[in-house]
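Hi,

I'm pasting everything inline rather than attaching a file, because the server keeps stripping attachments. The sequence lines come first, and each chain or strand is labelled.
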Amino acid sequence: MKVLVAVKRVVDYNVKVRAKADGSDVDLNNVKMAINPFCEIAVEEAVRLKEAGTATEVVAVSIGDKACQEQIRTALALGADRGIQVETEGAVEPLVVAKLLKGVVEKEEPQLVILGKQSIDGDNNQTGQMLGALAGMPQGTFASEVVIDGDKVNVTREVDGGLQTVALNLPAIVTTDLRLNEPRYASLPNIMKAKKKPLDVFSPADLGVDVTTHLTQVSVEPPAERQAGIKVEDVDQLLDKLKNEAKVI
Amino acid sequence: MSTLVIAEHDNGSLKGATLNAVTAAQGLGGDIDILVAGAGCDGAAQAAAAVAGVNKVLVADNAAYEHQLAENVSLLVAELGAGYDNIVAAATANAKNTMPRVAALLDVAQISEITSVESADTFKRPIYAGNVIATVKSSDAKKVITVRATAFDAAAAEGGSASVEAVDAVHDAGISSFVGEEVAVSDRPELTAAPVVISGGRGMQNGENFKLLDGIADKLGAAIGASRAAVDAGFVPNDMQVGQTGKIVAPDLYIAVGISGAIQHLAGMKDSKVIVAINKDEDAPIFQVADYGLVADLFDALPEIESKL
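And the predicted assembly:
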């Protein structure tokens, strides 16, 4: 079984991003970039399926400018077999990403597509579901467990009330939540080996996809700041303040 | 202008987040209809009909919709949504699962987790875990929108008298099925709807110690939450997680116990009216957003608070 795994280049999760002073965009000058943490979990899950003998090949795909090849190489160092870049310029919205991924799915015909549930820049949480609808595939979103069972996959999902398990016909989509697995670190020999693994580049035109955006970012601003309050001396003072000042208990 | 609001419900009753979505829909203007898709969902439909400001309730009552499988519900919503300018839902786990499929079927973008309606086509939404607020404009004729419930007041649950109309359309994609669920049963209020929330973090040290929060929660009528660190460490289940990738809460009173205050946690609770932090590390970032900070060992402070409440 072939597994396609999508990875996105985003600002490293340790970086505190700020709006530019003129509000035109976020300030990404000289900011450290990395693979989106949820995508890293997706790669790990795909590699584990291969190690378990369930998957035969793991293909990592990313959409973006040339720089995203760095994240594809990261996925290859973690154990993916080959890479695909769909070369785009500027910001690409989830609907367009989903259309491009559908083009890749048609070429590659994977049995399972694993994506992160959201990227930590746009926080949209859309791409996997949109790909599912466009490709006519079922989806197990926010997955905390993935079990292949013949021609089906059972996915346990993190939902508002607890956990839900669904059975999906293959081919299917899985989007990862935080507790699906703990990604490994790439070893130095594997990082070296990854440089030699094949990486194909396509354009949106190769896949027959129109990349026109539907959403435009008008401006950005910092969130309303919350003022730090006071430190209380002890429990008595805390309860007094909550009763008589804040009047919330 | 007309808007279809997708109800969040458990068949028997309507979930509060639906009321916040109705308020967001009112900001768009025009008639508001609610869709209740489920199985044996008459209770939820009747509750939806009573919501103030609602024109009509559409009820799709069929086994195919019982467990809110996205593959089935999205086909229904896309079909019914053809007749509306906007399709709106509170950003619950169900809506996050289903609405992007709806948007893709209709070939429009989705605008996720809006926190304000600036005009009929322009919205504000948090990005980068809430570190930045973006204003976005949609060029689509039809808009698919999910709403951050805590950013909008709840519409009145009573006072409306919408007509209730059955929808016959049955969409069973036949590619997915429900296997089972583990739902936490609790007498406490729901985390996202509780007036008071008390959350524990890594400082609680283990799951057993979360019992220290029980007595206080009982006395305050509070829901109990947790930080991602506490959930990842296996102290408590995932449905208790408050934060960017967990639940977003904005109660009147939020008490953070043994929580350092990582940005991902703050994103889930910083809109609370009053925030209390209890932590033995006086430099913990949580104190920068707390109205009242108590630097103390939680194992001393919690029993004392419980006894003095």
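The helical segments of chain B are 17-28, 42-49, 70-81, 93-105, 211-220, 228-232, 263-269, 298-308.

If the labels don't parse on your end, tell me and I'll reformat.
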